[in-house]
Structures are given as structure tokens and as C-alpha cells.
Write a structure and sequence with these properties.
The strands form four sheets. The chain has a five-stranded parallel sheet with strand order 2-5-8-1-9. It is an alpha/beta fold and 327 residues long. A hairpin with a 2-residue loop joins strand 6 and strand 7. It is 46% helix and 16% strand. The chain has two domains: 221 residues, 3-Layer(aba) Sandwich (Rossmann fold); 105 residues, Magnesium chelatase subunit I, C-Terminal domain (Helicase, Ruva Protein, domain 3).
């Protein structure tokens, strides 16, 4: 199979996933595309949305379609790191001798739903850091590798913030994308009602397997990207910093600090997947624009004035895009 045929395979697999999810998921095409992008880029996603929009259902359904080992961790204030990673337990053999045996926690899955991640303490949140960054965990000095592909999909409620622990910037930056779930419109609500309150039967089936996912992941980094497209992505990230010479006035007024180098990496890799989904084996500036908001919205921190005035980071990213295109 040549490189173009492999690229076409990714496009077909994506269409099969979308069509299968459409059996139970109404709308959310953009969210599904971005989750697929995270999967192929080996990244993790922070999903933000009010309760009841189907975040858990989407993740659980995706695990069935992709035939991945699914784990759900419900984050609460009393959750401990051992509840995520696992711990050693004492056992006794036939001769009465005692020994330790490691009991694996829910992190030992492939598709991990970290539900309401900001409800757990910073100590517990940090238990995810090594797993997200290195795809391994260390317990009592022993390293355990996680089965690939490994992806964490964390959710948080943007409204109910009382009793929560905001994620530190270092952990937020480890998420490849920050995704927002939109509220369904009237037609979509009609379809949701038909599928959930009437005699509607559905059965999801697997459309691709682990080997197929790993093969698609290996192709992403092979997609060529022109130097002027790389420069465009770099200028996007540099212009998000208030100290940059080309920074727009809104950046200087409302932004504390801009996107990190991980922002450029996310832009480039995600744009490659965007091109493959469209059936192209080259990256365009439009691909960069398509993934700019999910890749950068969580990496641009507002200052006190920006927070007070309720500035939307998505609007800031939109202004950066407009400014870079005129440079």
C-alpha cells in the first residue's frame, strides 16, 4: 500500500466512525473530528461543557467503535492517587507466606474518561501527569507501561466552580486540545428525544481496531508541510505573547502570557490530520486555521483585567488569526 492509499484509508476510517456514532450521537461533528485528531496525534483532550450534553456517552461510544479498553474515573474531593494508579495489596500463598501483588487502577486502560477532573485535589490531579506525558506510571518505584494507544479525555463544568480545584497551567498545557460542547438546536433536540424517549434500538459495532489506529498514527508525522505553512503556525503562537512586536492591542491589554511551544506542535500535528481527513497529503494554511482555537484556547492565559471583563479567549485567537494573515 503506497502513501496515498494509506491517506485514503484514514479518510475512510474517519467516515466510518462518524457514521457509526451518528446512530446514537446527535450533531457534535466538530467535536468528533477533533477527538479523532487527538487520537491520531497521540494527544489528550480537555472537554468543557455543562452537564447533560452527552460527554460521557460520546467517550464510551467511541471506545466501543474503536475497540479500546475503556475506563471511567469519577473525580471527587476525596479521590486519592492510589484510586487512579492502583496500589500493592498483601496476599498469602498456600504455605502461609505473605507477599505484595500490584492491583492496577483505572488508569490502566486505553481510553480514559477523567470525569469532572477539577473536583479532585491537586495531588490527585498530578497522578495523571506522568501517564499523560510518558504513557507510563510509577508506583512504589516500579514503572508500568500503559497499553497504546492511550488517551485521556477529561471533562469539566465551566459554570459550577464552587468546591473545585482549577487545573495548574503545567497540566492544562499537556492537553493537546481543549474542546467545547455546543448546546443542541431545535432540530437536534427533536432527534435526541426520538432516540432516547421512544422505542429506538441501536447497537454499536467496532469499525477499526488497535492495529489500525497505530498504523494511522505512524502516518501522521510523514505528512509533508511547506516551510511557509510552518512559519504561519509559528507566527500564530508568537503573536499570542504580549511582549511580541506584532502582538495586537487586545493581547497587550488582556493576556498574561501566550501559548507554549506545545501550541506549535499541536497546530502542526492537528493540521496534518485535518488534511488527511479531507483526503489531502499536504498541509494548507486553512488546516492550521481549522485547528487554531482548540489547540490554543487553553494555552493563552488572561490577566486580571481580561478575567474581570469576561474576555473570550476564542475571540482573542480569532483576532490573532486575522492579524497574522495581514502581516
Amino acid at each position: 500500500m503506497n502513501i496515498n492509499e494509506k491517506a485514503e484509508t484514514i479518510q475512510r476510517n474517519y467516515e466510518r466512525i462518524v457514521n457509526e456514532l451518528a446512530k446514537i450521537i446527535v450533531g457534535q461533528e466538530v467535536l468528533i473530528k477533533h477527538l479523532f485528531t487527538c487520537l491520531l496525534c497521540g494527544g489528550h483532550a480537555l472537554i468543557e461543557g455543562v452537564p447533560g450534553l452527552g460527554k460521557t456517552l460520546i467517550v464510551r461510544s467511541l471506545s466501543k467503535i474503536l475497540d479500546l479498553k475503556y475506563s471511567r474515573i469519577q473525580f471527587t474531593p476525596d479521590l486519592m492517587p492510589a484510586d487512579i494508579l492502583g496500589t500493592n495489596i498483601v496476599k498469602e500463598d498456600e504455605k502461609g507466606s505473605r507477599y505484595f501483588e500490584f492491583y492496577k487502577g483505572p488508569i490502566f486502560g486505553q481510553l480514559i474518561l477523567a470525569d469532572e477532573i477539577n473536583r479532585a485535589s491537586p495531588k490527585t490531579q498530578s497522578a495523571l501527569l506522568e501517564a499523560m506525558q510518558e504513557e507510563k506510571v510509577t508506583v512504589f518505584g516500579t514503572k508500568y507501561h500503559l497499553e497504546p494507544p492511550f488517551m485521556v479525555l477529561a471533562t469539566q463544568n465551566p459554570i459550577e466552580m464552587e468546591g473545585t480545584y482549577p487545573l495548574p497551567e503545567a497540566q492544562i498545557d499537556r492537553f493537546f486540545f481543549k474542546l467545547k460542547i455546543d448546546y443542541p438546536d431545535q432540530d437536534q433536540l427533536q432527534e435526541i428525544i426520538a432516540k432516547t424517549t421512544e422505542d429506538y434500538q441501536y447497537e454499536l459495532k467496532g469499525v477499526i481496531d488497535t492495529d489500525s489506529i497505530l498504523e494511522m498514527k505512524s502516518l501522521v508525522k510523514q505528512v509533508p508541510i511547506a516551510s511557509h505553512v510552518k512559519d504561519y503556525a509559528i507566527r500564530l503562537v508568537l503573536d499570542s505573547h504580549p511582549g511580541n512586536a506584532h502582538a495586537i492591542e487586545q493581547i497587550k491589554e488582556y493576556v498574561l502570557f501566550g501559548a507554549s511551544p506545545r501550541g506549535v506542535q499541536s497546530l502542526i500535528l492537528a493540521a496534518k490530520v485535518s488534511a488527511l481527513i479531507d483526503g489531502r497529503y499536504n498541509v494548507s494554511i486553512e488546516d492550521i486555521n481549522d485547528v487554531a482555537k482548540p489547540a490554543l484556547r487553553h494555552r493563552i492565559a488572561l490577566n486580571i483585567r481580561g478575567e474581570t471583563e469576561g474576555i473570550d479567549v476564542d475571540d482573542i485567537v480569532g483576532e490573532i488569526l486575522s492579524n497574522v494573515q495581514t502581516q
